[in-house]
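From the shared-data thread, chain only:
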Amino acid sequence: MFAFFSGTRGNRTDRWTSVWRPASTRHRPPTDGAAARHRLLTDAQWELIPLRNLADQLPHLPPESPVSITASASKTLEDTLDLTAEIATLGHRPVPHIAARMVRSHAHLQELLGRVGTLGLNEIFLVGGDVTSPTGPFDSAQQLLEALADVEHTLTHIGITSYPEGHALISDAALHEALHAKQVLLAEAGIAGHASTQMCFHPRSIVEWLSSERASGFTLPVHLGIPGAVDPARLLRIGTRLGIGASLRYLRKNTGAVARMLRPGGYDPSGLVDQLAPHADRLDIAGLHVFTFNSIADTVAWRDAAMAGRR
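Structure, as tokens:
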């Protein structure tokens, strides 16, 4: 999942406190977020890209890491599954991305999910995809979810996308409707799930968005998407190579997002984690989805320093 749009949604208020609490946390006493912060950092999932520069970085992954393998528009879904297989042989826990617009047919979907099962996996992350037009019958993740009823698979968990800070090409209303529709489809299929967010920068936007979605009946756990310790020039260079068109068009129009990435010393996600940790339990923020852009060594070093209190 490559979306790293940023910005302020027009229907936001200055509210910071959620009125919704999941049943498991309604009676917990308030905390300063220290325990939640430690939990989020400990359980971070690392997103990797199937590029040649990844090989030298793989040894820096912590043992038995949860790893998210992207579906790049410049590659194929078979490339994603090839890297998934390699990551699994290294003892990690890979989750391949399946981009709906890159699936050529129902038969192709069956083939892809069959290989997922052959690898002994039961989880995928489902995205619409960054390709301009679909290569087959699926134009959205929602359409592919609907097709699962007619396909054999081993899936017991599916991650879906979410956009607290909006999308450059899709309205807030459409994003809200799709999020809740996918939750219903997962429930009807008897498949567990979670929602991972786009790469986010604004704590207030995240809290307000998630508070609103919880009040509207969205109950899936949420994984917070954050940038890793990535050199900004590298991020934008890789984004250009991968053809992340919508994201890059947004960044060109929103210089504030670029400025945050280009601060001296790069972007440090610690502040974002620190500000959101006090809200994590009551809003069911279950983990971090860390966009490494294959800068694994630096990103893991950041995480370890943050856990040790050095960040």
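The mean pLDDT is 83.
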